[in-house]
Design brief:
mainly beta; Porin; 14-stranded antiparallel β-barrel; 16 strands; 9% helix; 45% strand; elongated
C-alpha cells in the first residue's frame, strides 16, 4: 500500500520524466569521446568531477551510491550545446587506379546548436534511497553540406553526415550498509537512434550495400547496470568508485552493411574513481579518473584493416559474404579505430554564503582517434581533450534552488594521411571545439 501511494503521488513527475525522455533523443556531439563531460548540472559545473560527492539525483549517472542522503528531490535542467566541427583535405588526388581520393579544401559541419535536457528524481522508502533519472550521451552528429565521399560512378551522391543519439533511463536503489558507507546499483535501459547519409561511395566495400546509407533513422535498445560505492572517512575525506557494464544493444538492421558485426553498436563499459576533500566549512576539492573502453566495441574500436581494400567488388562478384568479414558490416569490418579513453577531472566547490555555492573545474583526456584512421572519423571527429567549466547554485527559497553551468572545450585537431590514397598524397585534418550553457532547478519535495 505504501508503494502504491508513492507511485500515485509521483504520477505527474513520472509523466514529466517520459516527456524529457523524448527530448533526449535529439542529437548532439562528443565531449569525452562521445560521452558527456559530466552528468547532472552541478557535476558539469565541476568538469564532471564528483564520484565521491552527493550533489544531485543525477549523481547516479556517475555513482549510484551517491543517492543515499539525497532525500526527496527533483532536479531538472535544460542546456544548449554548440559543437563546431570541420575537416580539411590537403593534397590533390593522385589519379592512380584503385585509390579513394577526397576533394581538397575545408568543410564545416552545419547543425551547430542542440538542446540537452536531463532530469532526476530521488525518493526514500523503507530505509532505501530510490532514484529515477533520464540523461543522454553526446552522441555523434555531423552534417557536411558537400559530397565528402564522392563516387562519380554513382548518380545520387547527397551531402554527408551521421546522426547518433543515446538516451538512458535509469532506476537506482541505494542503501547505507555502515555509518558513512553506502552501496548502490542502477538498472539502465538504453535507447539509440541512428542515421547515415552520403556514404554510397563505400558500397563496393560493403557486405550489404543496400543497408549502408540513406535508410533514414533506425532504433536500437538494450540493458545494462551500474554499481557504485561511496565512503566518508571523518569530516574531510570521501572516496567513491563505480563501474558500468557494457550495454548490449539490438542491431541497427538498416545499417548492417556499415557497422561491424552486421549493424551492432553496443555501449562500452566504463569505470570512475574519485576523491573529495572538504578543506574547511566552505571549500571542497574533488578529483576523478574515468576510463571508457571504446576499443571493446567492434563498430567503434576496429581499425580500417589493410585487407579492407581487397573488398572492392568481391562481395558482389563472389556472393560469399561469410568469407569477406574484413568488409564493411563484417565481424572484422572497419570501425572508427577509437582507443580507450582515460580522463582526469578536477572540480572545486565553494560555499560563498548560506544561499550561494559556486563551482569550477577542468578536465583532460587523450582523444581516442589515431592518426592512421582519420578518414572514417570525418563522420565522428571526437577529438576534444580539454574542458574548463564554471557554475553556481543559488537558493531562491527553502524548497527551490537555481543551478547554472557553462563549459568550453578547447579547439583540438588530429592530422593523418588518407589511407586509401597513394602514401603521403593526401592529408586529412579533423578539428573541433565546443561550448555549452545550462540552467536548471532543484526542488525539495
Amino acid at each position: 500500500m505504501v508503494a502504491l501511494k508513492l507511485l500515485k503521488s509521483g504520477r505527474s513527475l513520472l509523466i514529466l520524466l517520459l516527456a524529457f525522455a523524448l527530448l533526449q533523443t535529439r542529437p548532439a556531439l562528443a565531449t569525452n569521446g562521445y560521452f558527456r563531460h559530466g552528468y547532472g548540472i552541478q557535476h558539469r559545473a565541476m568538469a564532471g568531477a564528483g564520484a565521491a560527492l552527493s550533489l544531485t539525483p543525477l549523481s547516479v549517472a556517475t555513482n549510484p551510491a551517491a543517492l543515499v542522503g539525497m532525500g526527496k528531490r527533483l532536479d531538472i535542467s535544460f542546456g544548449l550545446f554548440n559543437p563546431n566541427r570541420e575537416y580539411t583535405v590537403s593534397g590533390n588526388p593522385s589519379g592512380f587506379p584503385g585509390t579513394f581520393p577526397l576533394a581538397p579544401g575545408t568543410v564545416e559541419s552545419d547543425s551547430r546548436v542542440f538542446a540537452l535536457p536531463s532530469i532526476g528524481l530521488s525518493l526514500e522508502w523503507a530505509g532505501y534511497a530510490i532514484g529515477f533519472a533520464i540523461y543522454g550521451n553526446g552522441g555523434m552528429n555531423t552534417n557536411y553540406p558537400t559530397k565528402t565521399f564522392n563516387n562519380p560512378q554513382i548518380d545520387f551522391n547527397p551531402p554527408t553526415g551521421v546522426d547518433l543519439a543515446q538516451a538512458f533511463f535509469a532506476v537506482t536503489v541505494a542503501r547505507e550498509f555502515a555509518p558513512g558507507h553506502s552501496l548502490g546499483v542502477t538498472g539502465i535501459f538504453a535507447f539509440q537512434r541512428f542515421k547515415a547519409e552520403g556514404l554510397f561511395a563505400f558500397s563496393p566495400f560493403s557486405l550489404e550495400p543496400n543497408h549502408l546509407t540513406n535508410n533514414g533513422h533506425t532504433n536500437s535498445t538494450g540493458f545494462g547496470a551500474r554499481f557504485g560505492y561511496l565512503g566518508k572517512f571523518g569530516d574531510v575525506l570521501s572516496i567513491g568508485a563505480a563501474f558500468q557494464t557494457k550495454i548490449y544493444m539490438s542491431e541497427f538492421d538498416d545499417y548492417a552493411g556499415l557497422f561491424a558485426e552486421h549493424g551492432d553498436f553496443d555501449i562500452p563499459a566504463n569505470w570512475v574513481a574519485g576523491i573529495a576533500l572538504k578543506l574547511n566549512d566552505y571549500i571542497t576539492l574533488a578529483g576523478d579518473v574515468q576510463e571508457v573502453f571504446y576499443s571493446d566495441i567492434a563498430s567503434v574500436g576496429n581499425p580500417m584493416n589493410p585487407a579492407f581494400g581487397n573488398c572492392f567488388g568481391t562481395v558482389q562478384s563472389t556472393g560469399n559474404a561469410d568469407s569477406d568479414q574484413n568488409c564493411l558490416g563484417g565481424d572484422q569490418g572497419p570501425g572508427f579505430a577509437w582507443n580507450d579513453m582515460t580522463t582526469v577531472k578536477i572540480g572545486l566547490q565553494i560555499k560563498a554564503s548560506e544561499s550561494l555555492t559556486v563551482r569550477a573545474g577542468a578536465s583532460h583526456g587523450e582523444q581516442p582517434i589515431p592518426t592512421s584512421d582519420v578518414l572514417f572519423n570525418i563522420l565522428a571527429p571526437g577529438v576534444i581533450e580539454d574542458h574548463i567549466t564554471a557554475g553556481f547554485s543559488q537558493k531562491l527559497s527553502p524548497k527551490l534552488t537555481l543551478n547554472v553551468a557553462a563549459m568550453h572545450a578547447f579547439s583540438h585537431s588530429v592530422v593523418g594521411d588518407n589511407p586509401l590514397e597513394a602514401p603521403g598524397q593526401q592529408q586529412i585534418k579533423l578539428k573541433m571545439n565546443q561550448y555549452e550553457g545550462e540552467v536548471g532547478l532543484s526542488i525539495n519535495l
